[in-house]
Amino acid sequence: MFSLRTPLRRTILNSAGAIPKRHITVFGYTQAKALIFSEYGQPKDSRLHSHSISPAHGDEITVRFLAAPINPADINQIEGLYPSKPIFTTALGTPAPHAVPGNEGAVQVLSVGSSVTDFTPGDMAIMRHTAFGTWRTHATARSSNLLKIPKSPSVITPLQAATLSVNPCTAYRMLKDFTPLQPGGWFVQNAANSGVGRAALQFGRIWGLKSVNVVRHREGIEELKRELIELGGGGEGGAVVLTDQELADPEVQKGVVDRMGGKGAMLGLNSVGGKACIDLCKLLDTGGHLVTYGAMSKKPLTLGASLLIFKDLHFHGFWVSRWSDQHPAEKEAMLEEISRYISSGELKDVPMETTVWKRDTKEEELKAAIERSTQGFGGKKQIFVFEDE
Amino acid sequence: MFSLRTPLRRTILNSAGAIPKRHITVFGYTQAKALIFSEYGQPKDSRLHSHSISPAHGDEITVRFLAAPINPADINQIEGLYPSKPIFTTALGTPAPHAVPGNEGAVQVLSVGSSVTDFTPGDMAIMRHTAFGTWRTHATARSSNLLKIPKSPSVITPLQAATLSVNPCTAYRMLKDFTPLQPGGWFVQNAANSGVGRAALQFGRIWGLKSVNVVRHREGIEELKRELIELGGGGEGGAVVLTDQELADPEVQKGVVDRMGGKGAMLGLNSVGGKACIDLCKLLDTGGHLVTYGAMSKKPLTLGASLLIFKDLHFHGFWVSRWSDQHPAEKEAMLEEISRYISSGELKDVPMETTVWKRDTKEEELKAAIERSTQGFGGKKQIFVFEDE
Asked: Is there a contact between B310 and A319 if contact means CB atoms under 8 Å apart?
């Protein structure tokens, strides 16, 4: 019900295969637009900028964007709070250096320089690293910036490709890399309705894991619970969903631990921090591991020493950008596997709200989408989809 | 200068070999005294209790205590704040159940029951597990309670034996078990003047590791710095000592990181918590591990998510009691190794202040020693030494 099954999506899907007509000058320059910002600050201070892209030569690849999501990390990056810094440059023809926001995205190759052998026009690709700048219609890239999405055996849409490398990868690695979970084993997580949370819930189902999933109390909570339980394989299969308010009750904590066999889980995934994190720790068994990948509450983890010394909990963090840079080969294999889950229907999209970015789309419409992305973490994922009419 | 080189110590050392005259009734009962408490509360509410111990029969072993330290965990145990609970029993002839405080100690075997084959009178032993109750002159034990201290190849004194199983073992395991340190590698620690801290500093020297050691600012700080640097093998050898106040200065932090080669250490040992712990984290390299084994500041660890996510720090705890229960064979091998370091003079004692516990020692004198142990953590370790005149 939440996934994007609209005519728009089919348009995008088709457009990844056929190269559309381009707005090109008589000298071969591609007309492009990008959101840009000149210094760290608020997303609302970014502006829409028009520029030209020279024809690809040598190792250059001209790409057009198909889809680019707005992730919390993108906002932090604009604010200057993200360790992966954007590149400020005058290459887009601005008098002072500017950067393009956005870290994740799917592109279609339009043309390649004479020395490019691994990409051909029509290929779909995603960003290999963070900080490329993806909130733009077109860009000049190099092979090292791009990771090709194979056309087979998996077929995934540009929207799926554009949201593949951050959230599902984060969930995948956190479930695999910190403590071995056997089929039938439990993990617990908060922010279960987030992109990472939904991916973790579904990987759990696919791999035979059971999960306790905490979400913030909200309107329509019962419907959300039903939806998440279904994503996790049903309540019988071992997907428990409860609200942060429910989990704050020690009786409920005890009931959940009983449901897990009386000992708690060996793995917890935390994207909230603050008290929500401490409540999550109460669901962990002695010797368990808590992995933090976000801080939606903007509150630190406050850990009594006894959680470390006597309960023997281990606290780690996970940052998919670092992992990706350090494990390029493993990343490709993982993306291949995740793509198979997507194309087989085993891994469902997160709820998304699209903003169409066309040649005449106004700056205000784009910035309104960014603004919506910062309105709490219960909403749908905001994503730009590009139409090159 | 701080270690106990007094006639008293030689008395104790000698007394571990020869069995002294005992106060025994005509029926073979040993006259004993113990500090006892009937409910969790303050150490000052404990009292000195006289009782008799029946002759050892079957698998029983009658021991007399040689030395028993007062550790912070003992105080927490009396307060009811320690997870390893003492045994409340009427076995000592009290009308209501009482427990004996104290977890660490060295004993001499006085007599054994007919089925005991692994201990003989005169053997020196230490407690195998916590919560035996060591602030007492005599006790009935079983083989499973005791770990024999071999008479060779190492010769260690009862005071050394009585303080072997908590602090040096904690330091040893934390340096070995969390991240591999190569010779020449650095670790950092706070509470460097504590029993664990001094042991870590010296193991570092023995194993070729370099260390940054943080102590609280105090009177006589320069003398303490010199002493700790010498324990660590000298400033040239790579032992840096600085105060918590000095470390709070970002310029000093940078200088220390530069001294470590510009990247920081991969291992930190924390027994303080609060801000001191965050300052220590600034000396850790990306991907480093911080192990918490105490909370002298009584303040929790407050960790911004970026320390976990972007700096990739890993936070663990260490509790020697759990480790010892889970690794009995490794523990014996480690004690053997540490005993060799002690008898060779490579590992020096912590500064100790002894309280002699004789037949006529008053309850007030014993409780004054306990009180001194709670006066901050810059002082000497308090330890009971038993004289059976």
From this structure: yes
